[in-house]
Amino acid sequence: MDRVAIIGTGLIGGSIGLALKGGKVTGLEVIGFDDDRSSLNEAKKRGAVDRTAGNLREAVSGARLVIVAAPPLAVRQVFEDIGPHLSEGAIVTDTASTKALPARWAGEYLPAGVSYVGGHPMAGKEQQGIKNAEAGLFQGKTWAVVPSARANEAAVQSVIGLITIAGAEALFVDADEHDQYVAAISHLPLMMSAALFSLVRQSPSWDDIAPLAASGFKDMTRLASGDPRMAHDIMATNVDAVGHWIDRFIVELQRLRDLMQENRKSLFRQFSETQLQRDAFVAGDWKKRQPLAEAPSAKDAMSSMLLGGLLSSRVEKFEKDMERGSRGRRGVLDDDED
Amino acid sequence: MDRVAIIGTGLIGGSIGLALKGGKVTGLEVIGFDDDRSSLNEAKKRGAVDRTAGNLREAVSGARLVIVAAPPLAVRQVFEDIGPHLSEGAIVTDTASTKALPARWAGEYLPAGVSYVGGHPMAGKEQQGIKNAEAGLFQGKTWAVVPSARANEAAVQSVIGLITIAGAEALFVDADEHDQYVAAISHLPLMMSAALFSLVRQSPSWDDIAPLAASGFKDMTRLASGDPRMAHDIMATNVDAVGHWIDRFIVELQRLRDLMQENRKSLFRQFSETQLQRDAFVAGDWKKRQPLAEAPSAKDAMSSMLLGGLLSSRVEKFEKDMERGSRGRRGVLDDDED
Questions:
Q1: Residues B191, B242: contact at Cβ < 8 Å?
Q2: How many CB pairs under 8 A join A and B?
Q3: CATH entry 3.40.50.1000 includes domain A2-173
Q4: ipTM associated with this complex
Q5: What is the rounded CA–CA span in Å between residue B93 and residue B243?
Q6: Domain limits, chain B
Q7: Which of A83, A95, B226, B289 has CA atoms 20 to 30 A from the CA of A283?
Q8: pTM here?
């Protein structure tokens, strides 16, 4: 029997358990542990784990693979607590949203004979807890993998095996780069979302504003409904990178505000370019580019040319529309300035 | 036969047409006009209009209700062009995302015998055009109604009838207040969305960042895929309110950044409070409050007390967790600072 321990049976840990059990891997025993006994019992009831452990020591004892699915700051405590009880040759992975500090904690608290391979599944939802866990949560998603220098090749392959069973795609990345990247695409958006909701909610006009709030506002504030402990831990373990991206974002937002106030033709061009680029992103253009050599291929150049041509023709049409408008009694573009 | 003219048969105009025709109102003839002939022909083919007009004059001639579903800046030109051809007693409404300027243009360009009742359906999606139109687009949504001083009661009732047929709920609001409110919940989010995508997309590391981008980033940048002409016109007709909310948002984001850097216990409290308030918003708490008297009712006070109690108990548990963590070899909270 291969024993796998899941420490933390919330949304992520529970979903990993369900994926493992659903994968029908023969000879696999999944042991679960969670501080929250009701979450742990629910994990057992839902079949995410075969057996529950009464404490961390019991959970990791004899386990070949230990998956720590806890909020970032809790990972340190778990590593410290399980360190003395891990089997020689055990593999430890985690799912924390930041990777530099967990890697450092692994170096400090896990014994030399243990392979640490950091992980971060790029999946989740704002509904937390084991009751929202699902085997398919990671299907088709990216799962960042950050092996420690000490991890052996077999350990890395085991974690990739886990990721494959969960239906996700492994992506190797350096810990510091990972934290910079997710600061941009995940932690900054979380701060924006919380700031937007909090700002509008505190308005004295909130009761009049709320009935007008449509799907745009709901989408843009969805991340603010996530687990506050998780949000706190993410920020606490990625202060510099998040601060850096917040500052850059403010500069960009001010640039758009200035265009709105002073140069609306450029604002239109900006919106047009962003729309074309985002549509290309959603269509998965970066997937096509990944396996290519670093120099832009002929196909890339062609694609850039076509997008550039499309952008130019849109700007041209826009200018004609605006000109036609300004033949009226007043200029359309400065109509709001009086 | 009652004749209704729809000027602009894109997503919104087309969806209104489909809702009207699907509503099986007897004796109703819907005439469509659009600068874009292919959009107009598609509207006819899809049954959103009974008949297409060759020009604006033909479209509005004999119409009792004229619905102008054009981008905000185009509304002015349309009002100017149709003004001389409207029937005595005709009702004109529009669907522009801002309401103060269309109201002013109505005063300037529509004849005295015509009732203008501004409108703004709080519905939409980033996929534009008649091909994405659907009869159910407005179902259950709010539709802001801004009658002009000149509009008679029958005209207001006709527009409410249209809104009811479309399945939406009419909400009366003052034009300037409307523009302030939607700046907060719609136009600021649009600017944030465009700024976020543009910022991250221009990063030299974009090719490495993109594979990590999950649903959070996609949701937070969705509005950036909207029609750039529409986005431009919205900003051009709401410069002051949007600028005001952008500036306030930046202050709020900086406040969260400062908490992250200097006072993470307060950051946790902030995340917790925002989560509780947003969950209450999504659950529709404001709906329950609407019909109540302005002074907080006993039920409101109870609800506030319960939420406050929940928040306190969460902060308490968080502090205990953090203390337990800091009993380790180093303080959890300043672990990222060395």
A1: yes
A2: 354
A3: no
A4: 0.89
A5: 27
A6: 2-173, 184-326
A7: A95
A8: 0.89
